Amino acid sequence: MGNPATDEIEQLGAAAVDRITGAADLDALAAALAEVTGKGSPLAGVKRSLGGLDADARREAGQVLNRVNGDIGRAAADRRAELEAAVRAERLAAERLDLTEVRPDRSVGHLHLVTQAMEELEDVFVGMGFTVAEGPEVEDDWHNFTGLNIPAYHPARDMQDTFFVDLGEPGDVVLRTHTSPVQLRVMERQAPPIYVVVPGRVHRNEARDATHLATFHQIEALVVDEGITFGHLAGTIEAFTRAYFGEGFGSRLRPSYFPFTEPSAEFDIRRPDGTWLELGGCGMVHPTVLANGGIDPERYTGFAFGFGIDRLALARHGIPDLREILSVDVRLLEQF
Ligand code: FA5
């Protein structure tokens, strides 16, 4: 007959492996492991009693104990891997997105609020006889500033804190801070009469808050023709306001300053409840800017205006914080 201690160890080991293999989840596995290998476990008791055996029997029992402990360790590792895989599979199943899902109420999605506003604005201006023009978002200093009568030393540059692109001479290439550079680009490629609107993305190095974003959108209008007056500017803004916002809305101009227009004004929209919404800037195109665009300021005059689309789109939907524009929360996006 063999060493009774080794028989007991083999039996305890087999029972321990069964116990571990049968653990239903990771918590049960941890509990089973503590039970079969912990200080109070039967195997620990046998180990303590080995001291009473003679040398040969102790060595033999020690070897069996090591092997059994190895078996238990491997069984535990295998079971843990199985249980963890099951947990992962369960979580994946729960979090899986069904990209083929068809929502009966809204199966095709829709354009972003700002894109919608941009397209509506284009439609209104096209209806008034304008064409749509575009220009680059990465601009040179000439078109964004200097050619618009904003020389390097001019404090008006501080009004538009700029992102510079690491290209060419330092400070030469910028992310456009407004859509006004496209005034020059249109004048360079087209002789008057000019009646264009320019929607587009612009960038300023500004801290985001409820009324400011670092990347936002503007739409610019430029008219250059013979005999254009400030009256045409005011009338166009009023006509646009009624066409876009509807009856009951009106506009007003307040004296202001922009280096590229003279005279200049801010324009506000009057809501039916009598409150005012500040929209943007405008004015008669400065003669220097006309000349920079290759147009004879003695023969032609023009007006320009530009305003922020993001604030406009939000105001229309009664959303108080501009940062919502960046939200990817479908609960918000689906409302528009
Ligand atoms: C300009 O950008 C001029 N280019 C407008 C102009 C065009 C004047 C043509 C004369 C002739 P201003 O910096 O004020 O002006 O910006 C115009 C509008 O852009 C603001 O009224 C506002 O609606 C919007 N805007 C400006 N900064 C931000 C910002 N950080 N976040 C969101 N909207 C902004």
List the defining traits of the structure above.
336 residues; alpha+beta; BirA Bifunctional Protein, domain 2; seven-stranded mixed β-sheet; three-stranded antiparallel β-sheet; 11 helices; 42% helix; binds adenosine-5'-[phenylalaninyl-phosphate]
Evaluate the radius of gyration.
38 Å
Shape: elongated
Question: Helicity range of the residues?
Answer: 40-55%
Q: Look up the CATH topology of the largest domain.
A: BirA Bifunctional Protein, domain 2
Number of helices: 11
Task: Supply the CATH superfamily name of the largest domain.
Answer: Bira Bifunctional Protein, Domain 2
Quaternary status: single chain
**In this structure, how is the largest beta sheet organized?**
7 strands, mixed
How many DSSP-defined strands? 10
Number of domains: 2
Q: Tell me the fraction of residues in β-strands, as a range.
A: 15-25%
Q: What is the architecture of the largest domain at the second tier of CATH?
A: 2-Layer Sandwich
Low-confidence stretches: none
Bound molecules: adenosine-5'-[phenylalaninyl-phosphate]
Strand order of the largest sheet: 1-5-6-10-9-8-7
Average pLDDT: 90
Q: Report how far the terminal alpha carbons are from each other.
A: 85 Å
Q: What string gives the helices and strands in order? A: HHHHHEEHEEHEEHEEEHEHH
